[in-house]
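Inverse folding, one chain.
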């Protein structure tokens, strides 16, 4: 079996490490790579934290999973390791997910158990679709987007790149959610969401966020 390295020793990475046999019989976990100095050299979820993310640059033809849901963090890591063109990014679909015929899944994407993706849908690279999501027919999900558990999309929904959809968020048909947006949990999206917006509620309204 091929060694699989997981970037990120947090919740997504831990889920993949503990359940890899339910995703694929091609890989065995080599360990984690994480920048947290308190984790390096120790164990997380029963697997060794081998070093920082930069260690990926020294690997050759290794299989890598980006075990991180947050789009901005994921993009930063991908840019950081882009110099290593020999890396392999498998797409992981849990055995208890349902993916229709006529669906496209990008590299490095993780589809959790209980998720259903209907025909005509296109899911980009490095997307995380958590447990029990339902994507209506002809849904498009852009790269590095993250769907929390229980997200539901109506047919012909377009979710652009780097979007975060909170737990239980839903959309009507023909909705577009712009790049870099955040949709709060249990929200109902009844109209298009502009890029880099934070919205929440039933129906959603723009939310002002301050750091």
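Residues assigned per position:
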């Amino acid at each position: 079996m091929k060694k699989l390295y997981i970037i990120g020793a947090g919740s997504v990475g831990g889920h993949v490490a503990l359940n890899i046999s339910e995703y694929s019989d091609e890989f065995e976990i080599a360990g984690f790579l994480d920048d947290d100095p308190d984790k390096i050299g120790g164990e997380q979820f029963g697997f060794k934290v081998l070093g920082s993310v930069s260690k990926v640059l020294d690997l050759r033809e290794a299989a890598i999973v980006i075990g991180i849901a947050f789009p901005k963090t994921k993009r930063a890591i991908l840019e950081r390791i882009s110099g290593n063109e020999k890396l392999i990014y498998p797409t992981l679909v849990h055995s208890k997910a349902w993916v229709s015929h006529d669906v496209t899944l990008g590299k490095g994407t993780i589809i959790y158990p209980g998720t259903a993706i209907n025909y005509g849908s296109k899911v980009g690279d490095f997307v995380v679709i958590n447990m029990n999501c339902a994507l209506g027919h002809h849904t498009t999900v852009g790269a590095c987007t993250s769907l929390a558990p229980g997200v539901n999309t109506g047919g012909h929904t377009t979710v652009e790149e780097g979007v975060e959809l909170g737990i239980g968020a839903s959309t009507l048909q023909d909705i577009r959610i712009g790049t870099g947006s955040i949709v709060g949990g249990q929200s109902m999206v009844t109209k298009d969401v502009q890029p880099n917006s934070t919205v929440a509620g039933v129906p959603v309204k723009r939310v002002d966020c301050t750091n």
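The chain is about 10% helix and 30% strand. The helical segments are 11-19, 71-80.
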